[in-house]
Write a structure and sequence with these properties.
Number of strands: 12
Strand content: 15-25%
Pfam family, one: Ldh_1_C
Structural class: alpha/beta
Helix content: 40-55%
Protein name: Malate dehydrogenase
Main location: other
Low-confidence stretches: 8-23, 25-38
Largest sheet: 7 strands, mixed
Enzyme class: oxidoreductase
Mean pLDDT: 91
InterPro entries: L-lactate/malate_DH, Lactate/malate_DH_C, Lactate/malate_DH_N, Lactate_DH/Glyco_Ohase_4_C, Malate_DH_AS, Malate_DH_type1, NAD(P)-bd_dom_sf
Bound molecules: nicotinamide-adenine-dinucleotide, (2S)-2-hydroxybutanedioic acid
Shape: globular
Distance between the termini: 64 Å
C-alpha cells in the first residue's frame, strides 16, 4: 500500500514538476534505478535537438552501454527529451536547456558528443561555418574543462579540422588537456567510403573496410584505397571516381537537401558507431580500432586523422599510415597543406 502511494506521488511529481525544476527527466522509476547505480556510461549530447542531435539521441538511448543520457541544447530540449524518454530502453534521459544548465548537463559525464552548430547550405565550404561554430565549440569545451575534464570528447561540429584544435587549446588553457580524450569524428567518411567502394565492387558494405586519413573537408579527406579490406585493386579511373566521391560526399548531401542542411541521418548513424566504439574502449574491450582526427605525430602536423586503438583512456595507440601508392602520396601532400591552415586557424582563434 505504502509503495503504491509512493509510486502515485512520484508519477504525479513527474507530471507536475515544481516551477523551479530546471531539469527535464524521463520516467521517475528509471531515475531511481540509475541512482541505485545501474551499470553503463553517462553520455551527454550537446546540440541534441538538431538534425543530427535528435536521431543521435534516439540511437544512444538504444545503446545498452549507456545508463544516463543528458540532452543539452539552446532550444527545444523539453520536447526532444520527453519524446526520447518514453522509449523502453535502459538509459535514463534528462534534458537541459540553455547556457545556465550547461554545467548540470556536463557534470559526471564519461562521454560528451558535440554536434552543436550551424550546417552548410549549397555553395558553402565547411570553413564558411567557422565564424559561428568556433565560438559555440569554444564555450561548450570551457564547460567540459570545468565540469567533466576526464570525459572523452567526440567533436562533430564543422569545420572539424579547426574545431578539434579549438577544443585542444581550450583544454590546454584550462590545464585539462589529455590528447587521448579528444577525438574529431571522421567516421562518416569511412562509412561513405565503405558504401561507395562496396557499390563498385558489388560487395556487402559491411564486408568492406576503407581507412580514411587526413581530415574532414574536401582534399583533406584521403581514402587509402590501396589498403582496403578485402584486398582489391582499382583502375586509375575507378580510383579517381571513388576518391572524388568520398571527398565530396558531404557536398552531395548538401546539394540534394537544397538549403535544408547537411547530412544528419547518416551522420547520426556514424556518430553512434563511433561513440559505441569509444564506450567499448572505455569498458576495456580489446582491439577497438577506428579512424579519428586526433592529436598525432603520424605526420609533422599536430592533428591528423588515422586509425587509432581505443581503450580505457581514450586513444591508446595511433597507427602509422602504412605504405601509400603514388596517387595517395600526392593526395597526402595536398591534404597536409590545407590541414595546416585549418589547424592554425583554430589554434589562433583561441589564442587571440
Ligand atoms: N563531422 C561530420 O562528419 C559532420 C557531419 C554532418 C554534419 N556535421 C556538422 O554538425 C553540425 C550540426 O549539424 P546539424 O545538421 O545537426 O545542424 P542543426 O542546425 O540541425 O542542429 C544544430 C543544433 O545545435 C544547436 N546549437 C546551436 N548553438 C548551440 C550552443 N551554443 N549550444 C548547444 N547547442 C547549440 C541548435 O539549437 C541546433 O539544435 C554542423 O556544424 C555540421 O556541419 C559534421
Ligand atoms: O558536408 C557537410 O557540411 C557536413 C558533413 O561534414 C558531411 O561530411 O556530411
Amino acid at each position: 500500500m505504502q509503495r503504491s502511494a509512493e509510486r502515485i506521488a512520484t508519477i504525479s511529481a513527474h507530471l507536475n514538476p515544481p516551477p523551479s525544476s530546471h531539469q527535464m527527466e524521463g520516467l521517475s522509476a528509471a531515475n531511481c534505478r540509475a541512482k541505485g547505480g545501474s551499470p553503463g556510461f553517462k553520455v551527454a549530447i550537446l546540440g541534441a535537438a538538431g538534425g543530427i542531435g535528435q536521431p543521435l539521441a534516439m540511437l544512444m538511448k538504444m545503446n545498452p552501454l549507456v545508463s544516463v543520457l543528458h540532452l543539452y541544447d539552446v532550444a527545444n530540449t523539453p520536447g526532444v527529451t520527453a519524446d526520447i524518454s518514453h522509449m523502453d530502453t535502459g538509459a535514463v534521459v534528462r534534458g537541459f536547456l540553455g547556457p545556465q544548465q550547461l554545467e548540470d548537463a556536463l557534470t559526471g559525464m564519461d562521454l560528451v558528443i558535440i554536434p552543436a552548430g550551424v550546417p552548410r547550405k549549397p555553395g558553402m565550404t565547411r570553413d564558411d561555418l567557422f565564424n559561428i561554430n568556433a565560438g559555440i565549440v569554444k564555450t561548450l569545451c570551457e564547460g567540459i574543462a570545468k565540469c567533466c575534464p576526464k570525459a572523452i570528447v567526440n567533436i562533430i561540429s564543422n569545420p572539424v579540422n579547426s574545431t578539434v584544435p579549438i577544443a585542444a587549446e581550450v583544454f590546454k588553457m584550462a590545464g585539462t588537456f589529455d590528447p587521448r580524450r579528444l577525438l574529431g569524428v571522421t567516421m562518416l567518411d569511412v562509412v561513405r567510403a565503405n558504401t561507395f567502394v562496396a557499390e563498385v565492387l558489388g560487395l556487402d558494405p559491411r564486408e568492406v573496410d576503407v581507412p580514411v586519413v587526413g581530415g574532414h573537408a574536401g582534399v583533406t579527406i584521403l581514402p587509402l584505397l590501396s589498403q582496403i579490406k578485402p584486398p582489391c585493386s582499382f583502375t586509375p579511373a575507378e580510383t579517381e571516381h571513388l576518391t572524388s566521391r568520398i571527398q565530396n560526399g558531404g557536398t552531395e548531401v548538401v546539394e540534394a537537401k537544397a538549403g535544408a542542411g547537411s547530412a544528419t541521418l547518416s551522420m547520426a548513424y556514424a556518430a553512434v558507431k563511433f561513440a559505441d566504439a569509444c564506450l567499448h574502449g572505455l569498458r576495456g574491450d580489446a582491439a577497438i580500432i577506428q579512424c579519428a582526427f586526433v592529436s598525432s605525430q603520424v605526420t609533422e602536423l599536430p592533428f591528423f586523422a588515422s586509425k587509432v586503438r581505443l581503450g580505457r583512456s581514450g586513444v591508446e595507440e595511433i597507427f602509422p599510415l602504412g605504405p601509400l601508392n603514388e596517387y595517395e602520396r600526392t593526395g597526402l601532400e595536398k591534404a597536409k597543406k590545407e590541414l595546416a591552415t585549418s589547424i592554425q586557424k583554430g589554434v589562433g582563434f583561441v589564442k587571440k
